[in-house]
Structures are given as structure tokens and as C-alpha cells.
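Entry 14. Two folds queued back to back today. First construct below, sequence then C-alpha cells.
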Amino acid sequence: MTGAMYAAIGGLKSHMTKLNVIGNNVANVNTHGYKAQRMTFKESMYTTSRSGSNGGVTMGGNNPSQTGYGCSVGSIDLNMSPSTFAPTGVGLDCMLDGEGFFMVGNKIEYDIEEEGTPGEADYKRTVTGSGITSADQLTQPDLTRVGDFWVDADGYVCNRDNKVLYGFARVQNPNYRPGASKKEIAEQKALGIDIESKTIISTELVPLRVPLSAAAPTKDNGGIVEVTDADGNKSDKSLWKEGDPVYPYLSAAGENRYPSYKETASPVDEDKADSKAAPGVTQIPVAQNTNVNRVSDEMPVQLRNMKVGTDGSVTGTTVDGQTVVVGYVAIATADSPDGVTHTDGPYYKCMGGAGNLRVSALVDLPTSYLGNQVAPTKEGDPEPDAADAILREKTTKVRNGGLEASSTDVANEFAEMITTQRGYQANTRIVTVTDSMLEELVNMKR
């Protein structure tokens, strides 16, 4: 007889859990990027009082007789389908119109060792520390659907929890050849090498940061050079202007070094960079210095009207009207987006149940693999890991000037709340009736 009471208690616990889920959904009805949860019930265990049997020649069979012991929580699922767009009017606010997540995390710490005298040919800086160069590192950042970004004092694109946004940064092209002929450009392009563009997109995932601001050009930092005209007259020429954006450059993997000042490329004359790209070689983007006292290591360019474009580009305008592309937002996708695990607040991790995590871009990249790896062009070249391939996302777009609204459907939650309350009341009735029957049983001996 007490089995009914235990079944009712199981029902009470399960209905209370569902009410907790409903309460959380309703509480987050105005939380940007919130994904509503859904709870399902499942039957609990059964006891068998009589087994079933098949019929014979002279007798019929019988069905099994079983008694259940209530219900339990079946599953608590996330509905990761895109929600509606909520305009905010903030240029760097954005939402993903489709599946996927933004990748946010901590800033990368670089260890810098200096040798020689700044401004001299023997000056060298060794930099250790890099971004994400392979698929096995993708789980380090947090995943989120909330695109409430801003630029902090150090020039990093961060969300309101001060987690930096990861993406593909725009860097100087180490293969750039000024004045190259169309034939040379075509020949190198056939080999997968771009010698025409001054800047390219690095496929190493790094925290997006506004380019550094060039200091005033001087002869010491290589910003002013002596030129001779056709008549033999000599004069000084500035290679850049103070405040020009200084994009980072790519150094060969394993070196992670800054070239000496005599080899350092200026923001305008990038062909002086001594690092050359090679097929199959991973390259690391590191910031470049243009000043003896390293002012440009600390001063990002001041940008106006910053926004995130539909292609994921983070752009802004300098004081003198130059358009600067900081980089492109990376989109992370899981094999099973409904299976991601909530960690804290609006953040998720790709853990058990979500499958593999892949990264994609909304634009065509110069290489198809993380870490600037390229497919082999000849026999013997290293073959990149297939998991490092960057997907070209064509179904998801970025919408700027707003955030993703909560996916909570208040009308549905209220209806679920009513049925849950009635179910809870019914289970309490079972407890009351069972108690009355037990009381009658105890009173029989009187």
C-alpha cells in the first residue's frame, strides 16, 4: 500500500524540478542570449507480480502484471535555435543570425626577452606565447551567444565581463612585393602565395585588438629615410605618419622574434619585413614596434564608429578618415549544439554530449587551416590535420546594432506552470489518501 505513497513522492520531486526549470526560464525572459530549457518526465522502475506467457494448444496466454513506482526526471534540454533580434543602437553589439557561438576568453600573455641595444642592428626581442593554432586548443575559450562588445583601454575587443573576443586578425603580408608584375602575381597565386596585398588575414585565433598607433617617425626608428631624386638631390622622406595603424606581422614558427630596427617594416613600407611565408609552415602574428622607446607597444589607434559587419569584420575609422579592419570574428560550431554544457552565466563549454568543436569564418581566408597552415604543394610537404580545417560558414550571418533576445516563450511557460501545479496537487492527493487508508488499517485493531 505504501508503494502509492512512494510513487507520489517521486512525482512531487519531479514536478518540483520542472517548476524550477520553468521559474528559471521566466526569470530570464529579458536576459539577452538566454536559451530556454525544457524538462521531460520518464517512468520510474516497475515490479512484476506475474510474468507474461504465450498461449498453448489448449490454453490462452496472459499478459505480464506490473506495478510502477512513479516518475523521475527524464531530461533537461536546451533549445539552442536562434531567437529574435533586439535592437540596441550600439555599433559593436551584434548577434549571430543562425547557429554558432562567439569565442571569448582571457588575454594571451606574451613573455618578452630583449637582447642588444634598442635602435641598433643587434637589437632583438624574443616573444613566447601564441594564440590558437590547432583544433585541440579550441575548448580553451568560452562559448557565448551574447555579443555585447566594446573596446577597452588597451585596445582589446571585450564583452561586458571583460573577456576578450577571439577572431582572425588582420596582419602585414610577409610575402608582399611592391611593384610586382602581373605575371609574378599570377605565378605566386597559383602556388597559394599572395604577393599583391599589403595586409592579409591570419588564420591563427587570437584576441582581437585594435592596431597599435605609430609613433612620430624619426631616423632612429627608421621612419625617416634619405632619398635621392633624379637630379641627385638628397632629401628626407617620412615612411609613415604619427598615429598610422601598425598591423602585426607574421614571423616563422619557432622564432617568435622581432626583427632588428634596420629590418623592421614600417606601417606603409611592409616589404622590408625579413620573415617569409613557406608552404606548410605555421606562422605566428606578433605586434611590431616602430619606436625606440616602444610607445607603439602601448598606444592603440583611436577609432571612431566601430562596428561589426555582416561578414564578421570589426572595423573603425581613424581621426583622419582611414578605415581600419581590426579582424574578423570567429564562429565556433558544435556537432550537437543542444548538447553544450552551461558553465557560468551566458557561457558554455563543448563537453560530453556536444561532440567535436569546429571553427568557421564568414569570409574567405588565405589558408584553410588554423595556424596559417597550408595544404601541401609538393611531395614531402606536411599535411595539416583535417580537424584544423576552418569551415566557410554560409548560413550564419552577423547582425549588428543589437543583441539576441531571450528565447523564453512566456505564454508557453505559463501554460506549463499551470499543468505542473495541477500535477503537483494531484500527487499530494495521493499522499493524503494513502495516509488515510493507513490510518484506517491501524485503527482496525482497536
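Second construct, same run, same settings:
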Amino acid sequence: MFKEATDQNKKVIVIVGSSPISEDDFTDYVKASRAYYGDEYVFYYKGHPGYPYLQYPDQAKTRASIGLYDMEASIPAELIFFFNPEVMAIGYGSSTFSSLEDSQAEGIWNCELSSVNSEYNTKIDYAIRKLDAADETYGTLVKNPNTYLFEMNQDKDYNFDFAIFDAKSNTIKYYTNDNGTFTETQKTVTE
């Protein structure tokens, strides 16, 4: 199932998809995830069973063009993760996350951390969402319309409090937050 990762001797991340029409900013979320995780992972896409990828060839082409490998949508995601406990999950909010082990549930796309479903909000490491300049807390960090905020789960142990991904420059910056004073701790520019 994960031949490409095995061949490259890399770890696996499965992107849990939704319906093709509700996957807002998909390409930017993939870019942000790659910036965050680095190149030691191979990314796979597991779509919702109700939306087989062969019925949506344009989306399949987009995924292939950004280096994702499609998985068979009809296979229940819970089975994939059960039989492959080393595999991690990111993507759009789904009941799949509630069945995962803590070590598998990584990040939820397109939502605020405070709105993550209570069934799995203690499992995930972060939530990522598009950010705009009007945001009361983080708006001053927005440099262009394609800016994304990684809100880190404070129950987990990190050396930063949040990260900002700029999809235009393909840059992720990590920050600490000391009572509203943001200090950049690390910056990564990806290709």
C-alpha cells in the first residue's frame, strides 16, 4: 500500500480528504504540511469513500502534480490506520481522527484549534487555517492573502507556540507568544 515510501525509505503521512468540492485551499495546505514536516515523509491522499478519485480526474491530476499518491477511496481509513500504526494522519476534520491513536493524529486543516471536535481535540498536535490581516491576534503577521496559521495544541510539548506559513514564498516561521509579544524562533524556506 505504501510502496513509494518503502522504496524511498521514508515515513508515511496520509491526508484524510473530504468531498472534492469542499477541500478549500487544498494545494496550500499540502505545501504548508510539507514545509512543516520536511522531506522525510511521503504524502498519500485518502479521499472520502463517497467520492472515488477516478470520478474526479481534475483533482487527481492536481494531487499527482504536487507529488501526492492517491489511495483507494473505498478502503475504510480506519482499517488503513489500524493495520499501519506507524502511519500519521493530517487533513480535513473527520470522524476518522477519533479512531486514531494519539501518535497517529497529527493535524486538522481549515479550522481553528478551539473548534476541533472534542472527540479528538486532545489527540491532534495542531489545527491549521487560513489567516487574514483582520485577525485580532495574528493579523499583523499576514504578508499576503495566502497565509496560514498553525495553532499548536498546548497540551503537547513544543519549543514554539504557533507557526505561520506563507504559501507565496513557501516559508514557515515558528514563534513563541509571551503575553502577545511574538518572537520568531526558527524560519524554514522550502522548495
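Quick look at the second one. The radius of gyration is 16 Å. Strands lie at 11-16, 41-46, 69-70, 88-92, 105-109, 126-131, 147-152, 162-166, 171-178, 181-189.
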